[in-house]
Amino acid sequence: MSELTLTNNMKIVSSPCTSTAYIGVPIFYLACDEIGHFFVEGPKADSEILRHLFPRMSQFKEAKWILISTPAGKQGSLWNYYEEGFKKHKRLTAQSDSLFMNPLVNKAFLKREKSLSLTLSSLTALTITW
Q: Sorted alphabetically, which Gene3D superfamilies does this protein's record hold (predicted)?
């Protein structure tokens, strides 16, 4: 686990993608990068991880979360939130190619990746709630 303490004593913490990583730690802002690939603890690891993390946010009225990932099929938490996202009030849901979502991504890298795979690897899905 890595952490950076800000001048207001808030901490930015990076942790492994496990359901026990943040036990007892309050979370104001949760960012899950590549949540479509959280399969370390099993096929439903993403759902279990979120089930354990969301209660850590309950003490903050304005708590926010973001899920960012390349898709890993039409399954799991990312897919479920993406599917319902367009129908939820105050939820931003987006899908686009990687360069649109992050123009700093190296174009040559994306071209190599695309030539290696016929999957949706060049797409990024994003769900934010507030």
A: P-loop containing nucleotide triphosphate hydrolases
Query: What H or E segment, with its residue span, contains residue 115?
Result: helix 107-116
What one-character DSSP code corresponds to residue 24? T
Do residues 64 and 29 make contact, with C-beta atoms less than 8 angstroms apart?
yes
Look up residue 6 and give its amino acid.
L
Is pTM beyond 0.70? Reply is yes
State residue 29 phi and psi, 5-degree precision: -135, 125
